[in-house]
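REQUEST FORM: STRUCTURE PREDICTION
Request ID: SP-0412
Submitted by: Lab K.M.
Chain count: 1
Length (residues): 367
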Amino acid sequence: MTTRRGFIKHAGAAGTVFCSCGLLDAARAQPRSSTPPPLRTRPVMVNGKRVKTIDVHAHCLFHESLALMGDQADRVRPKTKGAEQMFIALEERLEAMDAMAIDMEVLSINPFWYRKDRDTAAEIVRINNEKLAELCAQKPDRFAAFASLALQYPDLAVTQLETAVKKLGLRGAAIGGSVVGDHFAEPKYHPVWARAEELGAALFIHPQSVPELAARFHGNGWLSNTVGNPLETTLALQHLIFEGTLDEFPGLKIIAAHGGGYLPSYAPRDDHACFVSPQNCNPNIHLKKKPTEYLNQLYYDALVFTPEALRHLVAQVGASQVMLGSDHPIPWEEHPVDHVFATATLGDDDKVAILGGNAAKLLGMNA
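STATUS: Completed
RESULT:
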């Protein structure tokens, strides 16, 4: 039986009765606006107070560094909407930011050079960082940036990070979710984390899928991104927690893209893992806190798409750990500010923090 009336009849015969309890009638009685609320533009106000909005997840590319990839350059270019806007045309980018109600973007470049030799990787990073610094100097009220690092050569990455922060004025560095599948808890990367901690430099983790699962991602739905990207972030954070890296470098400032991947959605399972299966845990690693407690010392962008998802993220990690992220110019979240205002569970102070206050504090900028 396909009709609702038929469904109710059969349900009643089975001893179950459908009752709307007046909920449908009440919902229909609620006044509905025929038009959606207008989208916010700059300047953004919260309770009558001007708020500086800072997007920590925005991208760009430079032709000069991309050219050093040779015949691999075309593979690096995103095959998505907004890809051409990666190469910033200044006025167009500013107009787009205004339309999104974004005062400032913290620009980053997803690392496409992790497989390159030392000299080529070093030159790509030099070009990226110098051009990012030029762009920030040109519009210091609209742009900040995370440096590029040749992380496959940790000793080189240490020098690059110091130069980027101390000489070029960049706010930290953008890194992948792994170095071609090699996770960050490996001791060879510790000098990079130590220097980042000393400099107070933030590390923005942006995933690049999980190369070991490439065959499993074949098929419809762009699974290498929709599943692979949040999965790689989840794995990166889990290794940093369970291998004791966050204990060794407790002052490390880590921002995880895409709301931290899947980790904040199922974090409490971590607290049971080594109790249920101690043979799968290293007896020589003694974490100083419960695994879930480390989530409260990490930072996350708010690129989780719905008010319910943002509500849950804040409930898990705290509003003080969340900040705006759009993935601009890739149109994953075209109205990140409105997304925050649509989350009814956030108070005014929470909104101010997420919209820009948290980023300004973490990155040493004026709010």
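NOTES: Residues 71 and 332 are 28 Å apart (CA to CA).
Reviewed by: T.R.
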